[in-house]
Amino acid sequence: MKLVIWRRTIDEQDERSACAEPVLLGPHAVPPRPARAGRLDDGVIVAPSRAASGAIGAILVPVNLSGRVLRNRVPLRAGLHAARHGDELHIGEQLYWLASDLAPEEATYDPALHGEDLFCHLTKARLRAGDPIVLCPGTQHAPCGLIQSARAWHAAAAAGLACSACGFRADAEEWRPPRRAEDNRLAGLLRLAARKEAR
Fold first, then answer.
1. In whole angstroms, what is the distance from residue 120 CA to residue 118 CA?
2. Which residues, 6+ apart, have CB-to-CB distance to 176 below 8 Å?
3. What is the pLDDT, as a whole number, of residue 184?
4. Would you call 127 helix, strand, or coil by DSSP?
5. What is the pLDDT, as a whole number, of residue 29?
6. Nearest 5°: phi and psi at 9?
7. CA 139, CA 129: separation in Å to the nearest integer?
8. What pLDDT does 78 receive?
9. Is the Cβ–Cβ distance between 167 and 139 less than 8 Å?
10. How far is CA 104 from CA 63, 83, 167, in A?
């Protein structure tokens, strides 16, 4: 599973980064970088994971940032914390959001890995070793993992059908960070004023 990290830039743009490995989020206007590229006290480490409890990752707050990192406007102490879909992180002056990357996983059916004697959930046809399959990613709140033949999955997605087990829709829009209406208007007016001054 990948974790999507949205970062709001100084000019009020949202930058998207997807990560499958732990990343370091700093208090300065720097995009997320691999956790192995920095020291623990350089920022907060966020690692993707998928748990049945709905957590999408883990947040590791170092001692030097204890109480200075806010998750959904609540201070976090040093230690390990669960990350949930849509969590807002304030680290110093930098604002981040964490989200699930809900992309179906395409694979080749391997009985040793996926289990023996499986059937496609849609067509009820028995899967054979080497058949192309798709694993449903689930929703923001819970993983699914339902296995379907790739052909049936793509036909269902093209028809706009949702996963019968969890309700995942392949055509659903990707989650984006929220914007407050007054922020949008003020930011827009400031950008317009800056453009007029630049002329």
1. 7
2. 6, 14
3. 57
4. coil
5. 62
6. -85, 175
7. 28
8. 93
9. yes
10. 37, 21, 13
Q: Name the burial class of residue 180, with classes exposed (0-12), middle (13-18) and buried (19+) by CB atoms within 10 angstroms of its CB.
A: exposed
Grouped pLDDT means (10 residues each) for the chain, 199 residues: 83 86 82 71 82 78 91 94 91 88 87 89 91 87 84 89 85 78 64 74
For position 2, what pLDDT does the model report? 77
Q: Quick one: tokens of 152?
A: 């049936």
Strand pairing partners for 6? 16, 97
CA 83 to chain centroid, in Å, comes to: 10
Predicted confidence at residue 28, as pLDDT, reads 75
Question: Which has the closest alpha carbon to 5: 52, 53, 43, 51?
Answer: 43
Burial of 78 (0-12, 13-18, 19+ CB in 10 A): middle
- For residue 56, give the 3-state DSSP assignment: strand
Q: Cβ(17)–Cβ(32) under 8 Å? A: yes
- Region of 59 on the Ramachandran plot (φ > 0 left; ψ -120 to 50 alpha; else beta): beta
Task: Classify 72 in phi/psi space as left (phi over 0), alpha (psi -120 to 50) or beta.
Answer: left
pLDDT for res 41: 65
Q: Domains of the chain by range and CATH?
A: 2-101 (2.60.200.20), 105-158 (no CATH)
In 3-state terms, what secondary structure has residue 184?
A: helix
